[in-house]
């Protein structure tokens, strides 16, 4: 039976009347432009596409949150345009949004999860069973009595997913639902989704930018400008490199490594499986196949890792933190210890990574860096507490950022914030103006009040174009009507427009398409080289950390458990995995090779891994293969 069917569906957020005074009048692009799509019951379909291609619009049309301007949409035979069918459709189609705050409705976690089952009239005992099942499925049972507003972004995402799982819908739509989860959490959620799809025949429509998630699907479709431009098995889709690039998508890093090794003469088929890649490398190294080496064979990977800058003046861009602790809702039932005696030094000039499992304290820490959260001694009403008899003096908290003492309430925090820019985990939190121009210009008008209107416009244009947005097309648009990735770009533009000396970004690439992620990271490196003294990024993507950071710290349960180079951290693979994290796929391949005696010493970037692997095979092979290193053949 057909679960979801789109027939010649058109939908646009814009007006077609060029005389309309609405800020969108000049933009008549369709979000969906004659879309045809059929999803069978029990099928698992992955939807890929660049930001703004219409993926989220497709999801909202499916369960009646939006109505098409033209065409027909049916869900299990029900017409989605008929208002009388909406309740029945929404009982059968559950959607997990990109931002979990969009679907949080209660002040207690279990009440939030129970909201759906209660509204469809389930019996009380059944509701209790569904709550337990859903929270256990997303590993959030211990937070059953917590308040959602005090959970981390990743934890909120799990609760949002649990709210849909509790309904056990016939169709489940996940709109970047795992974007804010740590690697272990992402795997746990996908395991649940796969089990529901395989065992209970729940139809899954997965909107994702993670290729490893898309590879789990029965079928993948690629959208561009509101149309389906590619369709087929995921492995076949990712084999069409030229077409992917045409639609602003990129190959998964695993396949880049395969092709980089192939160009170097190693006969290796495209695969996402690290075990198979390692086996192929070992097979060549051990003499099982002929080998023809090409010097300096490169992948098409990021290859953009920064090194610490040498031209930074003393004190500019440095972060010194000692004995930093923080408690949410102290002396209340919701008391949460987010930071516990944190010690960390970020050197001026670093491109620094902060990693950790969901709820480990990462976001809480970075919000201290520009005093969005203040240490107690920096509060206006702070008075030093008198010690009780026999009580020892607590260690003094030290927090110095860009030369500013953030423990002193006399510090000029406004000037500090002009020097330390912050991009939040969810860009919607810092977008507020009616137009993109006004939003980006806000910081300039507050921190640089002597600038002329012409200078402001020039700076805003430069900032928007720097993040890859067309100034003329977006300047009059509302930031709230942009796609998730476009909002993130506008949020970054609104921070870099003042050219801060320290730039802090909480999950800067989350929600962006693969090419967008690379563009944003390349942008951050350019900013770092040109004028920003220190860049600090929080990320769940270990490959992103390995590719881009010169140093990183691991948070766990409010503490820092390790600080090192990415290579130093990921060499100790078991320690990282034990903390609920993952490691770069190159580290997994290298570890498998080491078990067989092949010690590849690389920094775990894709380019360096390919090059060091080819060099190792050439130097230490058993002599049974040819090594034509100057003129070997390359694969297209």
Features of the shown structure:
2 domains, 6-stranded mixed beta sheet, 20 strands, alpha/beta, disordered C terminus, 23 helices, 36% helix, Rossmann fold, 636 residues
Set down the secondary structure blueprint:
Blueprint: E1 2-11, E2 32-40, E3 44-49, H1 55-62, E4 70-75, E5 78-79, H2 86-92, E6 93-96, H3 109-119, H4 124-137, H5 153-165, E7 171-175, H6 183-199, E8 203-207, H7 211-214, E9 219-224, E10 227-232, H8 234-237, H9 241-246, H10 253-263, H11 274-285, E11 319-328, E12 336-346, E13 351-356, H12 362-368, E14 398-401, E15 404-405, H13 413-419, E16 420-423, H14 436-447, H15 453-466, H16 471-474, H17 484-496, E17 502-506, H18 514-530, E18 534-538, H19 542-548, E19 551-556, E20 559-564, H20 566-571, H21 573-578, H22 585-595, H23 606-620
Parallel strand pairs: 3-8, 3-9, 6-7, 7-8, 13-18, 13-19, 16-17, 17-18
Antiparallel strand pairs: 1-2, 1-4, 4-5, 9-10, 11-12, 11-14, 14-15, 19-20
Helix pairs in contact: 3-4, 3-5, 4-5, 10-23, 11-22, 14-15, 14-17, 15-17
Task: Explain the overall architecture.
- Helices cover 36% and strands 19% of the residues.
- By secondary structure, the chain is α/β, with parallel strands linked by helices.
- The chain has two domains: 2-246, Rossmann fold; 319-381 and 393-564, Rossmann fold, CATH 3.40.50.300.
- The longest helix has 17 residues, at 183-199.
- The radius of gyration is 26 Å and the shape is globular.
């Amino acid at each position: 039976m057909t679960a979801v069917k789109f027939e010649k569906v058109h939908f646009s957020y814009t007006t077609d009347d060029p005389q309309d005074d609405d800020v969108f009048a000049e933009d008549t692009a369709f979000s969906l432009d004659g879309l045809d799509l059929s999803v069978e019951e029990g099928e698992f379909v992955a939807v890929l596409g660049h930001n703004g291609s219409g993926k989220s619009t497709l999801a909202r049309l499916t369960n009646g949150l939006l109505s098409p301007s033209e065409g027909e949409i049916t869900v299990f035979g029900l017409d989605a345009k008929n208002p009388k069918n909406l309740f029945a459709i929404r009982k059968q189609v559950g959607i997990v949004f990109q931002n979990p705050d969009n679907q949080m409705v209660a002040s207690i976690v279990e009440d939030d999860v129970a909201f759906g089952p209660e509204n469809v009239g389930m019996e009380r005992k059944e509701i209790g069973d569904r709550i337990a099942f859903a929270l256990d499925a997303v590993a959030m049972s211990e937070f059953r009595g917590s308040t959602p507003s005090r959970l981390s972004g990743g934890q909120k995402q799990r609760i949002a997913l649990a709210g849909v799982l509790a309904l056990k819908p016939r169709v489940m739509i996940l709109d970047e639902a795992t974007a804010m989860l740590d690697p272990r959490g992402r795997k746990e959620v996908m395991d649940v989704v796969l089990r529901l799809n395989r065992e209970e025949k729940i139809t899954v429509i997965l909107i994702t930018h993670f290729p490893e998630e898309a590879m789990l699907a029965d079928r993948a479709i690629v959208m561009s400008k509101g149309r389906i431009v590619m369709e087929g098995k995921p492995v076949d889709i990712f084999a069409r490199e030229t077409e992917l690039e045409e639609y602003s998508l990129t190959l998964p890093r695993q396949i880049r490594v395969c092709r980089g090794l192939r160009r170097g003469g190693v006969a290796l088929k495209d695969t996402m499986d690290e075990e198979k890649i390692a086996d192929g490398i070992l097979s060549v190294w051990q003499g099982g196949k002929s080998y023809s080496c090409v010097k300096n064979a490169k992948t098409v990977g990021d290859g953009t890792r920064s090194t610490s800058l040498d031209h930074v003046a003393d004190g500019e861009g440095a972060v010194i933190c000692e004995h930093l602790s923080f408690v949410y809702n102290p002396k209340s039932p919701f008391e949460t210890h987010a930071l516990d005696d944190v010690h960390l030094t970020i050197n001026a000039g670093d491109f620094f990574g902060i990693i950790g499992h969901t709820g480990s304290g990462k976001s809480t820490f970075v919000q201290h860096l520009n005093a969005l959260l203040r240490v107690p001694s920096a509060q206006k009403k702070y008075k030093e507490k008198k010690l009780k008899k026999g009580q020892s003096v607590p260690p003094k908290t030290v927090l110095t950022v860009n030369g500013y003492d953030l423990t002193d309430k006399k510090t000029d925090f406004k000037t500090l914030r002009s020097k330390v820019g912050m991009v939040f985990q969810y860009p919607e939190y810092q977008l507020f103006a009616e137009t993109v121009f006004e939003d980006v210009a806000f910081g300039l008008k507050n921190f640089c009040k002597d600038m002329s209107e012409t200078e402001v416009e020039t700076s805003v244009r430069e900032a928007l174009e720097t993040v890859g947005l067309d100034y003329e097309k977006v300047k009059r648009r509302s930031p709230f009507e942009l796609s998730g990735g476009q909002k993130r770009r506008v949020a970054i533009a609104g921070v870099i427009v003042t050219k801060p000396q320290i730039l802090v970004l909480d999950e800067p690439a989350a929600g962006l398409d693969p090419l967008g992620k690379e563009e944003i990271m390349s942008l951050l490196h350019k900013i770092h080289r040109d004028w920003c003294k220190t860049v600090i990024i929080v990320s769940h993507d270990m490959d992103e950390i390995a590719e881009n950071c010169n140093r990183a710290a691991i948070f766990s349960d409010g503490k820092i458990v390790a600080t090192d180079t990415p290579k130093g951290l990921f060499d100790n693979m078991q320690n990282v995995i034990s903390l609920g994290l993952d490691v770069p796929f190159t580290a997994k391949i290298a570890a498998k090779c080491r078990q067989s005696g092949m010690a590849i010493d690389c920094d775990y970037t894709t380019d360096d891994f390919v090059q060091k692997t080819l060099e190792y095979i050439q130097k230490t092979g058993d002599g049974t293969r040819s090594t034509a290193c100057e003129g070997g053949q390359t694969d297209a």
